[in-house]
Amino acid sequence: MTLRRVYKKQYQGVSMRSGHFYKFKYKAFERDPKPLIIFMYSIEGLHPNTGHEWRIFQAINFTYIPRAMRKRFLKKWLKEMEKPGSIKFTWQKVLTKYPELKNGIRRYFFTPTYYITNLQKIPDDRIEKEVIKSLIKDFSKKVTTGIRGLISKAKKARERKRKAKLKKKKQRIR
């Protein structure tokens, strides 16, 4: 079985659909044991080159997105959800229409099954309240700080390389 994206996933009695909102408890967490997500798709199957088996789903975790950005996104997305037909919330859509959500991308293992417990779909009439209320768990500052740190380290490394090149150049001239 080759790798495939699944936009509708039946898991623990809950029908997960791309573009819809869910919350659950996650045992393999790094920072957030109770993520609040918008489901993108699951990735299942064997990688054709490596043979690695994939059993994950990809989602945007809103606790990594600043509150003001969540509000702006929700205004746009709730209008999308009202349109007739099936919705697909993909990584390409994030990059083109909602780039402010990039820092919230996360992958969650759905196997072993004990990693995810208490999976719940957030009803449409409670989406706004649930997504915006999670201000207490706001990891967006940690993500931003982490990115700033990486940029700072990269700049320092680039400066060290530049100085080393100049030093070598001066030594050759002598």
Query: Given the C-alpha coordinates, what overall shape results?
Result: extended
Uncertain ranges? none
* Number of alpha- plus pi-helical segments: 4
How many angstroms separate the termini? 64 Å
Count of distinct strands:
8
Characterize the biggest β-sheet: 6 strands, antiparallel
Oligomer description: single chain
- Helix fraction, binned, reads 25-40%
Structure class: alpha+beta
Work out the count of structural domains. Answer: 2
Provide the residue-averaged pLDDT.
Answer: 86
How do the SSEs run, as a string of H and E?
Answer: EEEEEEHHEEHH
Radius of gyration: 21 Å
Task: Please give a structural write-up.
- By secondary structure, the chain is an alpha+beta fold.
- It has 2 domains: 135 residues, no CATH class; 35 residues.
- Helices cover 37% and strands 28% of the residues.
Short note summarizing the structure:
By secondary structure, the chain is of the alpha+beta class.
Q: What topology does this entry show?
A:
Elements: E1 4-6, E2 8-11, E3 14-17, E4 21-26, E5 36-46, E6 53-61, H1 67-82, H2 91-97, E7 105-109, E8 116-121, H3 127-133, H4 140-173
Antiparallel strand pairs: 1-5, 2-3, 4-5, 4-8, 5-6, 6-7
